[in-house]
Design brief:
By secondary structure, this protein is an alpha+beta fold. The protein contains nine helices and eleven strands. The strands form two sheets. Strands 1, 2, 3, 4, 5, 6 and 7 form a seven-stranded mixed β-sheet that branches. A four-stranded antiparallel β-sheet has the order 9-10-8-11, sandwiched between helices.
């Protein structure tokens, strides 16, 4: 959170599924997952301030793809919190979203925006809500919102709502690449060949670049083959990451954003510059993940 005169800015971190196993499907159609996720310093930004009337504006590279009506998770988060606390405690608010992450790209951008709004509004409105209370409201908006509220290395199970924080997890050097092809999560899940895969193996006792890379080699993203079949450009993104020297490359979530793991932030920056030079129209970002403890 950054504080400016009369307003606060909250960071909405991209969620990266380092590994994602689909382990089953409930009777109501929701899929069960087992996923190791981290959150990056790069992401969207949300500015919140008290106002005379409710207002919501969007800027940034991907603003044209963001709906401004009630279907937007930012507005759903505002309205859910207002219902929870009551209108007398939730006066009009101005929300400005800087949309730096591609839409429908497998990095939880909308969910992370909603999480930032929940945290920001709880402070702006001086509401007495702890993390569990915010997570309960967040879950009503979508299974990804509680993990985006946590924004630390974690393992998510169930429909993504059963969270276990991973301690002693240092920041990772990452490059994110999206070839500019939105992917429908529903279409990817519908195209799965099987939905009863084994869960993740146990995490290494000590997590560093090398042990994590070795662990990732024996895991999967079960959504990647289906997404690749729907959007072959994902394969090009992975290929460019590998050419740029990624220690490990994989698609995040339901795609189309892919990540490359790099040993240092400087190596990641050089790789991102190389890919950006070759693919200037793509989304390419060098970043670091949020560690389990403040560094």
């Amino acid at each position: 959170m950054d504080t400016e005169i009369g307003s606060c800015i909250w960071h909405a971190h991209a969620k990266i599924n380092l590994a994602l196993h689909v382990t089953g499907r409930r009777a109501d159609g929701y899929h069960l997952i087992d996923s190791l996720a981290v959150f990056t310093r790069f992401g969207d930004r949300v500015e919140i301030a008290l106002a005379d009337n409710d207002d919501f504006t969007v800027s940034g590279r991907y603003a044209p793809a963001v709906p401004l009506d009630a279907s937007n998770l930012v507005l759903k988060a505002r309205d859910a919190l207002r219902r929870e606390a009551g209108p007398s405690r939730t006066p009009p608010i101005s929300i400005k979203l800087e949309k730096n992450l591609p839409v429908a790209s497998g990095v939880g951008g909308g969910s992370s925006d909603a999480a930032a709004v929940l945290r920001g509004l709880a402070q702006a409105w001086a509401l007495d809500l702890d993390d569990a209370g915010l997570a309960r409201i967040g879950l009503s908006l979508g299974a990804d919102v509680p993990m985006c509220l946590a924004a630390k290395p974690l393992v998510a199970r169930g429909i993504g709502d059963e969270l276990s924080m991973v301690p002693d997890f240092s920041a990772l050097g990452l490059v994110l690449v999206n070839p500019g092809t939105p992917v429908s999560t529903a279409d990817v899940f519908a195209a799965l060949s099987r939905r009863d895969n084994e869960p993740l193996p146990p995490l290494p006792r000590s997590i560093d670049f090398h042990s994590l890379r070795n662990w990732l080699e024996i895991t999967r993203n079960d959504l990647e083959p289906a997404a690749l079949a729907l959007q072959p450009a994902i394969g090009r993104a992975l290929s460019w990451l590998n050419k740029a020297g990624s220690g490990f490359s994989r698609m995040s979530g339901s795609g189309a954003t892919c990540f490359g793991l790099f040993e240092t932030g400087n190596v990641a920056k050089r790789a991102a510059a190389e890919i950006r030079g070759r693919q200037p129209d793509w989304f390419v970002a060098a970043t670091r993940s949020m560690p389990s403890e403040a560094e």
